[in-house]
Amino acid sequence: MTTTAKSPERRPAPLQTESFRLSRPSIVGPEVPEPPFPITLCGTVQRGFGRGGKDLGCPTANLSDDALESLTTSVETGIYYGYARLHAPTAGNADSDQSSHDETRKQDELETWPMVMSLGWNPFYKNEKLTAEIHIMHNFETDFYGHKLSAVILGYIRPELDYTSREALIQDIETDKKVALKSLERPAYKSLANACPLTL
């Protein structure tokens, strides 16, 4: 399904600079989430380019196009933080090569975990399509293509940037994770972990 929502305008992404890297704060956002947050979304995890885990050491869940409507009408492209939850698949919904593991997927894999999300065109890789890619900060034993995933977005970390090297991109991703975890430690943010639906 293709969303009919209007996508954020595609603009040239600024280049990440050393001064930007050195000036990044360890916590972002107010003490209590402010509109348009929280934003809740859900969708089916689909196969992406396979770069997150292989190239960047940061596996991501790529959501289907119809999941983007609540985002593209509310926020600009960039990096966001919040919580995400994987849901056990219903019969026939998960990829066939995952079915044997899905039957015994560990309970902790179906709990709510902190996440960071990239919404944009990934200028370093020159994507032609707007994507929402969620990195759940938990170690999963296997992929979960075809599963449903719900997320609650609670704040904005930084704009979408371009990079001169993959190493610079990886460095910013690792900082994004630390900023997200630190920002989510605040009581008003912790209390919203339960905003992810328990069932879909």
Structural features:
200 residues, alpha+beta, 6-stranded antiparallel β-barrel, 6 helices, 6 strands, 20% helix, disordered N terminus
Quantity of strands, as a count: 6
Q: How are strands sequenced across the largest beta sheet?
A: 1-2-5-4-3-6
Derived structural class: alpha+beta
Order of helices and strands: HEHEHEHEEEHH
| Gyration radius, in Å | 16 Å
- Helix proportion: 10-25%
The major pleated sheet works out as: 6 strands, antiparallel, barrel
Uncertain regions spanning at least 5 consecutive residues: 1-5, 96-101
N-to-C CA distance = 18 Å
User: What is the overall shape?
Assistant: globular
Mean pLDDT: 83
Question: How many helix segments?
Answer: 6
Strand content: 15-25%
Question: What does this entry look like structurally?
Answer:
The chain is of the alpha+beta class. It has 6 helices and 6 strands. A 6-stranded antiparallel beta barrel has the order 1-2-5-4-3-6. The radius of gyration is 16 Å and the shape is globular. The chain starts with 17 loop residues before the first helix and ends in a 10-residue tail after the last helix.
In short:
The protein is α+β, with helices and mostly antiparallel strands and 200 residues long.
Helix-strand layout with pairing:
Blueprint: H1 18-22, E1 39-46, H2 51-56, E2 61-63, H3 69-72, E3 78-87, H4 99-102, E4 112-120, E5 131-136, E6 148-158, H5 166-183, H6 187-190
Antiparallel strand pairs: 1-2, 1-6, 2-5, 3-4, 3-6, 4-5
